[in-house]
Amino acid sequence: MKTKRLLIFFIIVVLFLFNFNPVFANSILKKIDVLVNNIDLYVNKEQVLVDNFLYNGTTYVPIRAVAEMNGMDVDWDGENKRVNLYSNDSYNMKTTDGKYNIIYLNPEPLKDGNYLRWGFIDIVFDSNTNKIKDKDSIILIDCKGNRISVKSQPGLTKKNNFLIIPNKELELNTYYSLYIPKDMIVMENGDLYSEEILIYFKTATNVIKGKITSNKSMFGENLTLTDENEIKYETTIVGDKENEFYFTNIPAGRYKVIIGNNSYETILVEENKINNVKLMQK
User: Fold this and answer.
1) Quick one: average pLDDT of 249-257?
2) CA distance 134 to 179
3) Count of Cβ atoms closer than 10 Å to residue 11 Cβ
């Protein structure tokens, strides 16, 4: 209960610091002296690596980082400038407005190890989409409160796909949240999707982004990585024009590569980076 009261206090702080009403914001602006990152923050004996600052005897930290470390989800109501906290057990993103349904999300809400392999967030409906009513209404932020500018591209891959494309590659090992207010996505028939969309996810600690040199398409074939302890990791080769494969959260080390009955050169995987590899058959 003490933790929840503390988090509620953080909500109030965030609302004061990041209120988007210019008149109100100008009325509270003042010059202050703070100590930045002077405090090490731990939750349940696990360190939270987020920026913080100390002002007038109070430490201020991003609400999302602390809430998620306590098993809570942060519901950002952009329309009303309000933040709600929910326990993981009770929070489920609505995937329907009663008329239209979301049938697929990438990344999935509350999932770790995500990597946007083709550079976009994908929301798939059971009906065709047309456009976004207000392009500035889509909000993507990281756990430090940094907003990442995005553009939307309905129907780029399929007519019922609504794509959100960040203007830069997302950082690894980082929490993100995506928010789209209700009545912003316009369906092909002119209807508005009348439910908000809120996706929390964490990116992978590392990524293998691979291509295979071959004169033929290898789409759909199985690829296996085997480490020095004979532990195996498997995936399927993808890509319409190039033979691509992806892994996330693979432990650092050297791996043998097998595709079908063919052996390829070994690859080295490092932590906290995108490991770009190109394979050629031995």
Assistant:
1) 95
2) 13
3) 16
Amino acid (one-letter) located at 2: K
Minimal CA–CA distance to 224: which of 269, 260, 197, 187? 260
- Dig out the tokens for 257 from the structure: 């590569």
List the helix and strand counts (H, then E) for the chain. 3, 25
Calculate the alpha carbon distances from 40 to 45, 57, 92, 136 in Å: 11, 15, 32, 35
The values of phi and psi at residue 15, to 5°, are -65, -35
Fold observed for domain 207-279: Immunoglobulin-like (2.60.40)
CA distance 130 to 190: 8
CATH 2.60.40.10 location in the chain: 207-279
User: Are the beta carbons of 85 and 73 closer than 8 angstroms?
Assistant: yes
pLDDT digits (tens, 9 = 90+) for 83-137: 777 666 555 678 999 999 999 999 877 777 888 888 999 999 999 999 999 989 9
Is 3.50.50.60 the CATH number for 102-203? no
